[in-house]
Amino acid sequence: QKEVEQNSGPLSVPEGAIASLNCTYSDRGSQSFFWYRQYSGKSPELIMFIYSNGDKEDGRFTAQLNKASQYVSLLIRDSQPSDSATYLCAVNQNTGFQKLVFGTGTRLLVSP
Amino acid sequence: DAGVIQSPRHEVTEMGQEVTLRCKPISGHNSLFWYRQTMMRGLELLIYFNNNVPIDDSGMPEDRFSAKMPNASFSTLKIQPSEPRDSAVYFCASSRGSALNSPLHFGNGTRLTVT
Fold first, then answer.
1. What element of type H or E holds A3?
2. Is the CB of B42 inside 8 Å of chain A's CB atoms?
3. What chain A residue is nearest to B57 in terms of C-alpha separation?
4. What is the pLDDT at residue B62?
5. How crowded is residue B12: how many other Cβ atoms within 10 Å of its Cβ?
6. What kind and span of H or E run contains B36?
7. How do A61-66 and A54-58 pair as beta strands?
8. Cα dihedral: B69, B59, A5, A68 (round 10)
């Protein structure tokens, strides 16, 4: 079992729809969770992070965390073609220092 | 803020040659990470420095890989000798502190091709 799993996609949604991206992780001791966006040929850039169970909203983005189910998700409301990218889930394992383990990413395609 | 600066952007070399990748972290950031990204394996952490000291190098694939951080503003990742399977994009990232929710800031990466 991979430490951080994501569906590779592509996930296709029409413009204006809600895109739902999911991630599961194996280490129950993981403490913080990050979502990064990566455009083709570019470096990952941080969208948001979450470390408490529940929802965290930032503009059109909502991160959801369920530690009991070892599940993290990212919702993108009012999806735009410019949101088309690969979304990487990263988990900070309970190692005493910052060690981010990344999933392989989900490719999102938003069609006009 | 200039961001994390990596050089070169692209490197093409022949198998057996030495390759050196360079990184300048964001000023004031005391944690530095080297990652490798491939289609098959995604982003893999190679090594992590905190205050210029290597903390975890368990991700370094083998002895052909070495990394140094002689001061707070410079790090190198060296591959000697290089092999075709080392072809990947190598990212350097830095963060302020080692807090578990400190975000990573990535450089633009070095695309390495070993023929």
1. none
2. yes
3. A99
4. 86
5. 12
6. strand B31-38
7. antiparallel
8. -80
Q: What is the pLDDT of residues B21-55, one digit of tens each?
A: 999 999 999 999 999 999 888 999 999 999 999 99
CA atoms of B33 and B106, how far apart (whole Å): 9
> How does pLDDT run across B67-90, given as a tens digit for each residue?
999 999 999 999 999 999 999 999
| Peptide bond just before A10 cis, omega within 30 deg | yes
pLDDT of residue A1: 63
Closest-CA distance of chain A to residue B82, Å: 23
Residue B56 touches partner A, C-beta closer than 8 Å: yes
Mean pLDDT of B99-111: 85
What is residue B21's three-state secondary structure? strand
DSSP one-letter string for B77-97? EEESS--GGG-EEEEEEEESS
CA distance B70 to A31: 31
Q: Tell me what pLDDT residue B102 has.
A: 77
The radius of gyration of chain A from alpha carbons, rounded to an integer in Å, stands at 13
Strands B110-114 and B10-13: parallel
Place of tokens 């410019």: A82
Judged by a CB distance cut-off of 8 A, whether residue A77 touches chain B is no
> A107 near A65, Cβ under 8 Å?
no
Q: From the DSSP assignment, how many helices (H) and strands (E) are in chain B?
A: 0, 11
Longest CA pairwise span in chain A (Å): 45
Per the CB < 8 A criterion, the answer to whether B36 and B42 are in contact is no
